[in-house]
Design a protein that fits this description.
This protein has six helices and no strands. By secondary structure, it is an all-alpha fold.
Length: 158
């Protein structure tokens, strides 16, 4: 099945209707204007969702790379050993790199959208203001990364 965002273009190119593409059968009737509008709306929605996911992945990637570079600088210079603030910053950066990798994996596999839809049913998350949502998400992500790091360090010896 082709990506929903290109169904309208495929239908226009081959001069067939969206139901014909979905059913895999050619019908004699042409796609009417209402079907075209609905398909176009679906296509626009799918494109918007993809752009949103790509934007979030790009942000996570940039944050992860910045944190990795800062951690590398602090670690290679040994500056984190001489100052408590730099030591905490190095730990924060190390955790942020882990969180970024986890979040990118969640975005690319679609797991995050499944978790979001389930959490909205159980916990009315969308009623919170956007800053509160970001804080809660960050706390949960950092907690998850800390648990993963704990398991890797203490149980796997990494």
């Amino acid at each position: 099945m082709p990506d929903i965002s290109i169904l309208v273009d495929i239908a226009d190119y081959y001069d067939i209707s969206i139901p014909e593409i979905i059913s895999g059968e050619r019908k004699s009737e042409m796609m009417n204007e209402e079907e075209r509008k609905i398909a176009k709306t679906m296509s626009d929605y799918a494109t918007t969702e993809k752009e949103k996911i790509f934007k979030e992945m790009k942000l996570q990637s940039v944050m992860g790379v910045c944190a990795l570079v800062l951690y590398w600088i602090l670690h290679e210079t040994g500056a984190y050993m001489y100052n408590d603030v730099l030591g905490k910053l190095a730990g924060y950066c190390e955790t942020l790199v882990s969180v970024s990798v986890i979040m990118i994996a969640a975005f690319t596999t679609g797991s995050l959208s499944k978790v979001r839809s389930k959490s909205r049913k159980v916990f009315v998350f969308e009623n919170f203001p956007k800053p509160m949502q970001l804080v809660v998400t960050a706390v949960v992500a950092f907690g998850g990364a800390a648990v993963i790091k704990l398991v890797l360090v203490y149980f796997c010896g990494l």
